[in-house]
C-alpha cells in the first residue's frame, strides 16, 4: 500500500476517534459544570448563614481552598459567584444545567453590573471566558472620583535569580534615606582606601571599590545590630502588668484591665514584667522573663514553617504559642510550642478554636469541638453524577466587537 493510501485511511479513523472523545468530553464537562454549580450553592449557604466562622478559616475563599483542595484563585472564583448568586439566577441555572462553566460565571460575577443577569446568561452560551471578560470590560462605568494621593510603599517581586525591591517615599523621607546611604557609602570608601594603602595598590587580592549596594547592605546590617541589642529577635514585645494580690486582677501599665484571654495572648511570646500591689501600694516585682529565644524560634520555623492550624498556609508574622500556657506551668520548649498566624492566635485565645498537644501530635478543634483535619474533603463519590446534557461549549467564533451592544445599566428613576 502506498504512503498516500495509508494517510487517507488514517484520517477518517482519527476523525472518528476525535468525535468519540469530544462526545465524552462534552458529557464530562456538563457534569463538572453542574457539580460546580452545586458547590457554589453550598458556599452561598455557608456564607448566608455565617457557618464558616466556626471552622477557624479566615474567609469563605480560604475555607473552600482548604476543604476542596483547590487553588486559592479557583476558591476565590467560587466565593465570588456564591456572594452574588442571588443577583445572577439565570447564570446559576446555566451552571446547574451543565451549560455554563464556573470560569464563565466567575468573570460575570466579578465585575458585571447589577441587573445584567439576562444579558450575560445569553452571551455566555456562545462566548469564551476571554470574550466574556472583554464584554464585561465594555460596560459603561461611572466617572472615577479623584485619584487618591500617592502613599509611601515598599514592594517586592522575584525571578529565578534576583529579588526586586521598589520603594516609594515622600521627598523628606527620601532625602533622609539618601543622606544615610551616602554616609555609609563614604564610610565604606574611607575604609577601602585605608585597606588599599595598607596592602599596596598592586595587590592581587584588592577588593573592588564599594558600591551603593554595599552601602545599602551596611545600612541594613547596622540598624539590625542596633535593634537586636535593643529587642532580641525572640522577644516581640515587653509587657508590663500590674497585679493586685487581693483582688487577683491584672492591668496593663497605664492601661486598662485585662481579661484572661487578653493576658494570655500578650504573654505567649514576650517579656513579662510583673509588679505586685497590695492595698494600692507596690510591694514587689517579679522577674522579667524572655520566653522565646532566637535559637528556639529557628527550630520552630524549621519544624513547621507555616501556621499550625490546618488549612492555613500563612508564613509571615507568625507568633510562637505555648500549647500549655506559661502561666499554667507550660515549659518553653519545642514540644510545647507551635507557630500561629496572628488571626488564629487571637481566635484561639478568644475561644474560637482549641489547640492541644504535644506539638508532635497537635489537635486543633473548632468552636463546636470538631477536629480540624488537614487536606481536602475529596473522597470516592457514592452518588451518580448529575443527570445533565452534554455541554456544547462556546461556538469558538471570532467576536466582532464593532457590532456588540454592551450591557447598559438602567438609570435610577428621577423624582419630580
From TrEMBL:
<protein>
    <submittedName>
        <fullName>Uncharacterized protein</fullName>
    </submittedName>
</protein>
<comment type="similarity">
    <text>Belongs to the Rv1128c/1148c/1588c/1702c/1945/3466 family.</text>
</comment>
<dbReference type="GO" id="GO:0008270">
    <property type="term" value="F:zinc ion binding"/>
</dbReference>
<feature type="compositionally biased region" description="Pro residues">
    <location>
        <begin position="382"/>
        <end position="393"/>
    </location>
</feature>
<dbReference type="InterPro" id="IPR003870">
    <property type="entry name" value="DUF222"/>
</dbReference>
<dbReference type="Pfam" id="PF02720">
    <property type="entry name" value="DUF222"/>
</dbReference>
<feature type="region of interest" description="Disordered">
    <location>
        <begin position="367"/>
        <end position="394"/>
    </location>
</feature>
<dbReference type="GO" id="GO:0004519">
    <property type="term" value="F:endonuclease activity"/>
</dbReference>
<dbReference type="InterPro" id="IPR003615">
    <property type="entry name" value="HNH_nuc"/>
</dbReference>
<dbReference type="InterPro" id="IPR002711">
    <property type="entry name" value="HNH"/>
</dbReference>
<dbReference type="Pfam" id="PF01844">
    <property type="entry name" value="HNH"/>
</dbReference>
<dbReference type="GO" id="GO:0003676">
    <property type="term" value="F:nucleic acid binding"/>
</dbReference>
Amino acid at each position: 500500500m502506498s504512503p498516500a493510501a495509508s494517510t487517507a485511511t488514517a484520517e477518517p479513523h482519527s476523525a472518528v476517534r476525535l468525535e468519540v472523545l469530544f462526545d465524552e468530553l462534552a458529557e464530562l464537562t456538563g457534569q463538572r459544570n453542574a457539580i460546580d454549580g452545586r458547590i457554589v450553592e453550598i458556599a452561598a449557604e455557608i456564607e448566608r448563614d455565617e457557618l464558616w466562622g466556626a471552622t477557624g478559616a479566615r474567609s469563605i475563599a480560604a475555607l473552600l481552598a482548604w476543604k476542596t483542595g483547590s487553588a486559592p484563585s479557583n476558591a476565590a472564583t467560587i466565593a465570588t459567584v456564591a456572594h452574588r448568586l442571588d443577583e445572577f439566577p439565570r447564570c446559576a441555572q446555566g451552571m446547574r444545567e451543565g451549560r455554563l462553566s464556573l470560569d464563565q460565571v466567575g468573570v460575570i460575577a466579578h465585575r458585571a453590573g447589577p441587573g445584567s443577569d439576562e444579558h450575560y446568561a445569553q452571551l455566555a452560551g456562545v462566548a469564551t471566558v476571554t470574550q466574556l471578560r472583554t464584554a464585561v470590560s465594555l460596560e459603561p462605568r461611572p466617572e472615577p472620583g479623584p485619584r487618591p494621593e500617592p502613599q509611601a510603599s515598599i514592594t517586592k517581586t522575584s525571578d529565578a535569580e534576583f529579588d526586586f525591591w521598589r520603594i516609594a517615599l515622600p521627598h523628606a523621607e527620601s532625602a533622609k534615606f539618601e543622606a544615610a546611604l551616602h554616609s555609609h557609602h563614604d564610610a565604606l570608601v574611607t575604609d577601602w582606601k585605608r585597606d588599599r594603602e595598607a596592602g599596596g595598590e598592586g595587590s592581587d587580592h584588592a577588593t573592588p571599590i564599594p558600591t551603593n549596594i554595599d552601602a545599602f547592605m551596611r545600612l541594613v546590617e547596622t540598624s539590625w545590630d542596633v535593634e537586636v541589642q535593643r529587642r532580641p529577635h525572640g522577644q516581640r514585645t515587653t509587657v508590663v502588668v500590674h497585679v493586685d494580690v487581693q483582688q487577683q486582677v491584672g492591668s496593663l501599665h497605664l492601661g486598662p484591665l485585662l481579661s484572661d484571654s487578653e493576658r494570655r495572648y500578650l504573654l505567649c511570646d514576650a517579656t513579662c514584667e510583673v509588679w505586685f500591689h497590695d492595698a494600692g501600694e507596690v510591694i514587689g516585682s517579679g522577674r522579667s522573663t524572655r520566653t522565646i529565644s532566637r535559637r528556639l524560634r529557628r527550630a520552630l520555623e524549621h519544624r513547621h514553617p507555616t501556621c499550625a492550624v490546618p488549612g492555613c498556609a500563612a508564613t509571615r508574622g507568625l507568633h510562637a504559642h505555648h500549647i500549655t500556657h506559661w502561666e499554667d506551668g507550660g515549659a518553653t520548649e519545642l514540644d510545647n510550642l507551635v507557630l500561629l498566624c496572628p488571626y488564629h492566635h487571637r481566635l484561639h485565645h478568644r475561644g474560637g478554636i482549641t489547640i492541644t498537644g504535644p506539638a508532635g501530635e497537635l489537635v486543633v478543634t473548632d468552636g463546636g469541638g470538631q477536629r480540624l483535619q488537614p487536606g481536602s474533603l475529596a473522597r470516592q463519590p457514592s452518588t451518580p453524577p448529575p443527570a445533565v446534557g452534554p455541554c456544547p461549549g462556546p461556538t469558538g467564533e471570532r467576536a466582532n466587537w464593532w457590532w456588540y451592544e454592551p450591557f447598559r445599566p438602567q438609570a435610577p428613576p428621577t423624582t419630580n
